[in-house]
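Students often ask why we bother encoding 3D structure as a string. The short answer is that it lets us treat folding as translation between two languages. Here is a chain of 295 residues written in the first language.
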Amino acid sequence: GRSVSRAVGRSDGRFSGRTDSNGRLVGFQIARGDKRSGENGFFIPIHHAMPVLETLKDHPVVERGALGLGLFEMRPNFAEALAVPAEYSQTGLLVGEAIAGGPASSAFFAGDIVLSLNEEPIRKVKQFRNEIGYLGPGSKARFRILRSGNVQKVEIELGKLEDLLRIMEQYTEPDRKEPPSNLPARTSNTLFTDVEVANLTEELRKEHEITAGFHGIVVTHVVGNEDSDSEEKNVLVGPYEAGLRVGYLITEINFQPVTSIEEAAKKLESVSRKAVVVGLKAEKGRDSLAGLQIP
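And here it is in the second language, the structure alphabet:
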């Protein structure tokens, strides 16, 4: 029979238990989908719900576990830039940052790739965050990570999500050297394939609403459009498909800070790969990463 056969509980489906054909509870439906409006339903499997229910018996407030990592799903451009072995190039999560003072700050570094959590493969950021949350604070989490081409094992005690949020509220950007005050208004279309960048002048800062104190090189032109997304999973993609947009600020190349076209050019001279990982300040100062091809 079908694994889920009927709902029990509320008749309108907004919150109801779901049973299999043998009458065993398999989870909870907390929102019903609507084909006409395109809204999705939401279902919580029983193996995710039970730890929460058990916790609620003794603690009315559920505390979620936290790690403190900025993570990005693996892409072909990242794999090329970081020389990731082929067997790991389509799995895992790339660490963009370990939040200073967070539970993971002493064990993870930018550029690490998280392969598994408690022996279970990890491919999606949402999946990973949910699992960390369900484990709860004080739990020991075991990870396999890829660092500089070598697989390592790491074990960390998870912290409280509330504590991590307080740390993040007080978080400030790392101290980085200021660019020269007389930085020339220079542009370049040769640093990255199909991308034009410029030194960040006050005029460009105002034009693209870049927050004071952020430094780097600003993206002024990107080749590509919304319809040019590659459907192949193993090929390098262009800058637009990689997530780059006009007005974004490139602040790092391979996790090293850059403040000018001249500095970026020097860093790229030593790169032997076909792509690099760039750190970005995106809209409203949001941190992001992109893998960009280089000529």
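Translate back mentally: The helical segments are 46-58, 76-81, 125-135, 161-169, 202-207, 261-269. Keep this in mind for the problem set.
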